[in-house]
Amino acid sequence: MAYVGLGSNVGDRLANLRAATEMLxxxxxxxxxxxxxxxxxxxxxxxxxxxxxxxxGVRVRATAHGLHARLKGIExxxxxxxRHRWGPREIDLDLLxxxxxxxxxxxxxxxxxRMHERAFVMMPLAEVAPDVEPPTMCGNLREIxxxxxDAAQVRLAHPPAALMVPSQEQREA
Length: 173
Prior knowledge:
This protein has about 170 residues and is of the alpha+beta class. The chain has one domain (about 1-165): 7,8-Dihydro-6-hydroxymethylpterin-pyrophosphokinase HPPK (Alpha-Beta Plaits), CATH 3.30.70.560. The protein contains five helices and eight strands; from the N terminus they run βαβββαβββααβα. The strands form two sheets. Strands 1, 2, 3, 4, 5 and 8 form a six-stranded antiparallel β-sheet that branches. The protein has a two-stranded antiparallel sheet with strand order 6-7. Strand 6 and strand 7 form a beta hairpin. Helix 3 (about 120-130) packs antiparallel against helix 4. It is globular and about 35 Å long. About 35% of the residues are buried.
C-alpha cells in the first residue's frame, strides 16, 4: 500500500482533489481508502488562500519511482505551474509512504521528509492508517500525530466520501 498526500488552494479545490484521485485510478493503481478532507492554513508562505488537504491509500503494481513519476505527470496534466516554494498550487501530490520502503534520493525520499512535522499531512494520514509504523520514524502514525507540535490551523471540511472514486462496477450500474 502506498499513501499519497493531496493538496490544492487554486480554483475549485475540492474538484481538483477529486480529479487527481480519479486520475490515479487505472494502469495498475487502485485507490482503496480516502481520508476526510481538511482545510488548512498555508505553511511557509502565508499570503495565499487556504488549502484543502487529504490522503488516499493506493494499491499499486508500480515501484515507488514509477508511482512518483505518475504523480508528477498528473500534476502537469492538471496544470500545476511552478511558482515559488510553498506557493499556490492547483494540485500538489506527495508520495508519503510506499509499502515499508525507506528511500533517500535526489528526486524522492520515503517516508516524506517533513510529514511528521505537519498536521495537515499527519491528521488525514493517521485517519486512514493509524497503526502503520513508517520506517525511520518512532511509533505508529497515531502516536506520531499525538506528539506533533504544529500550530497551523487544520479543520475538517468534507467527509471521506468526497474523494472516493466509484468502482467500475458502480459506474456501470
